[in-house]
């Protein structure tokens, strides 16, 4: 009876042992399970929908407008204008995007998170970037480049990025006295920002020397003071009336006197800084050109901070004037006061003029700053800049 149960129909099989029968049954069950699993897997693969995204059709480069595709040459990050968004994605050498998703209202570009990723190499810091120049009858005017870079990005000075106590010192009036200019450019440490007067002399020569020495630069533009024209910063003063009417011929004259600067600092201009009707178009024009504005902090009536913040213009303001009293001991006391402000708040900005006594006092104070835990940074490192958020 046992043999009949295991005999295939129509065949006579020899008798097998129970162990052989169990081995045969086990192999048969395994084969059926494998076949079932294979069939199920095949059904699952063949029956599920295709989740592979369709390949994006890349537009040929020649079909795009020249402004829609751009690449940076030479060392540094590669910059590519993306057609879909009109923005800019910037990648480092490893190909990893470093962007924060903030869209530039003027160019549609995306600002860069990685500090210094757009900065000029030091070897070329004295050379103007031609993509950041707008030719004009008044000279080379600063402008945002087609790929979204700003003079503020490219000409910014360096800092080590630590979170310790940071102080920016701006020494202005360069270009007026050749001796004072030479002293400031050669004696002050690279972290000190230098402000060149638009009415100065040999500005391009001094700019190149200052940039080779590692300094960040500002341009001092004459703005209308109270009592103008009896009290005047000189020719080509931008008045409240002209700025309110968006007549920027005087400003363009100042901007065209120099290159390789990150922003504008007021020369006088107490009335100008108190008038929102002048500040709004003026700061908007600086923002359009990719520049910051530094208020020298001499007027308590200044509205520049509020207007700059509301309009998204990069902005900084001085906390102390260091050399109202040009006595060496008085300047040293002001530097100590600036240091106390910085220790209390984390940062501080001081302004001064390129007098010999001032340069000597700042140079002596700076010699021991690092040992006291102070980093001297360019003013752009402390500026409010809504396009970088970091």
From TrEMBL:
<dbReference type="GO" id="GO:0005975">
    <property type="term" value="P:carbohydrate metabolic process"/>
</dbReference>
<dbReference type="Pfam" id="PF04748">
    <property type="entry name" value="Polysacc_deac_2"/>
</dbReference>
<feature type="region of interest" description="Disordered">
    <location>
        <begin position="1"/>
        <end position="21"/>
    </location>
</feature>
<feature type="transmembrane region" description="Helical">
    <location>
        <begin position="27"/>
        <end position="47"/>
    </location>
</feature>
<keyword id="KW-0472">Membrane</keyword>
<protein>
    <recommendedName>
        <fullName>Divergent polysaccharide deacetylase family protein</fullName>
    </recommendedName>
</protein>
<dbReference type="InterPro" id="IPR011330">
    <property type="entry name" value="Glyco_hydro/deAcase_b/a-brl"/>
</dbReference>
<dbReference type="InterPro" id="IPR006837">
    <property type="entry name" value="Divergent_DAC"/>
</dbReference>
<keyword id="KW-0812">Transmembrane</keyword>
<keyword id="KW-1133">Transmembrane helix</keyword>
